[in-house]
Amino acid sequence: MTPESRPPLLRVISGNPSEEELAAIIAAVNIAAVNTRSRRAAPPAPHFSLWARKARQVRPAQRPGFGAWRASTLPR
C-alpha cells in the first residue's frame, strides 16, 4: 500500500480548526502513542521450585517435652 492510498489517521469531521489547534491535537496523540509504546509488560515473577528451597535442608527446632530427646534422633 502506498502512502497516498492509505486513509488519513486523523480527520476533521466538523468545524474549522486553526493550524495551532490541529498541531495541539497531533502533539497530544503523538505523546499518547509514544507513552503506550514505551510501556513494557512486567517480566513474569520467577518460579522457584519448593524442592530447591534451602529451608527444606534446615531441620525444624525441637520443642521441649516428654520424649523430645528421643524424637530428635528419629527420622521425620
**Oligomerization status of the protein chains:** single chain
The low-confidence runs, each spanning 5 or more residues with pLDDT under 50, are none
Structural shape: rod-shaped
Order of helices and strands: HH
Helix content: 25-40%
Structural class: mainly alpha
Rg, nearest Å: 33 Å
Individual helix count = 2
Main beta sheet: none
Mean pLDDT, as a whole number?
78
Give the percentage of residues in beta strands.
Answer: under 5%
Number of β-strand runs = 0
Distance between the termini: 72 Å
What does this 3D model show about the protein?
- The chain has two helices and no strands.
- It has helices spanning 19-38, 68-71.
- The mean pLDDT is 78.
Task: Give a quick summary of the entry.
The chain is about 30% helix and about 0% strand. It is an all-alpha fold.
Topology, please?
Elements: H1 19-38, H2 68-71
Structural features:
76 residues; mainly alpha; 32% helix
